[in-house]
């Protein structure tokens, strides 16, 4: 139904990246088609897009409607709000004390095996109160929003005991209810084997399946279930068991797959019909083909491979060539990727993954939205979609990854409301 008035008209946009096109994740050459319009406008009413496109077309579309407020974009670049589809947002503490070990060359999985890494954050998260976790994550969400992110997926997985997992998930729910950024919640009780189950991973898997998953479902605290399938963490068989149980309960599925060892996580994600598989640094050609055939979205995390000083990075070019839809994310967490900035990820995706600026923006908007089941609501600027958009102090897409390490955001609009103006929070 056509609205009676326009709440906000953003005009004088230098380059408008609409991402309009076929619904669903973009693959292959389609990842380069960002629906760019020079000299555009966006009309917004009731938090949704009324029209987005060339200025004259938008004016024609809203002819006769009263316009409450206008915003002069002053020739800036406008894109859909950025979507971060893989984060470990809610956690206690930080891990800068592990930097020295890392510099000495101690591998990530070795630090974990010694009781550090993820397990160090488990101790800090268990010790933190719900309010402490909420306040810490709130600050990170503010940073994300200042950097142009308007929707974030957030995982549990630093509790590794029913009550502590529920505590993290309740924080995610409360943040979603109170912060302007939208959150999508994932249960990741199988992120590591907790110390009290050391050497008894089978029993812990049973606990996840018999107690945690049903209770998380009963309380409606998560939409997706994720597992860290990795050498020394959860095997392919254990991951299959957990995800099959989650599927049975109606969770959407995700998998941390082939991050360090090529265990066959990508094939498992394809077999189970996961919406996405994450990391994929070590995935084989067979794994990528299986993902392509099963339309599993690859969520690449170049800030993680950068920060872990990985010798190689996810093969985004091969993925695109093989028709795997690629999304990009910060993987924000206190260990392998302590950054909230998707703009840093833009630079790393270009330089380390060989993606073009157009593929990168597709990976952080439409494909990222699809990776968290929100492709019909966000990810593009098309009539009827949520009015989440970012005005960058830039005139073209390539400028963002090119001029790296700083924040280019001028304005962020979330559900039609200006939440960042002149690079500052307004809420
Ligand atoms: N690799 C597994 N899990 C996280 C890291 C968690 C951590 O180190 O605290 C990741 O996706 O990178
Ligand atoms: Zn992760």
Automatic annotation (TrEMBL):
SUPFAM superfamilies: Composite domain of metallo-dependent hydrolases (SSF51338), Metallo-dependent hydrolases (SSF51556). It catalyses: 4-imidazolone-5-propanoate + H2O = N-formimidoyl-L-glutamate. Coiled coil: none annotated. Pathway: Amino-acid degradation; L-histidine degradation into L-glutamate; N-formimidoyl-L-glutamate from L-histidine: step 3/3. Residues 77-419 form the Amidohydrolase-related domain. Its cofactor is Zn(2+); Fe(3+). Binds 1 zinc or iron ion per subunit. Zn(2+) binds at residues 86, 88, 256, 331. The keyword Metal-binding applies. 4-imidazolone-5-propanoate binds at residues 95, 158, 191, 259, 336. Catalyzes the hydrolytic cleavage of the carbon-nitrogen bond in imidazolone-5-propanoate to yield N-formimidoyl-L-glutamate. It is the third step in the universal histidine degradation pathway. This is Imidazolonepropionase.
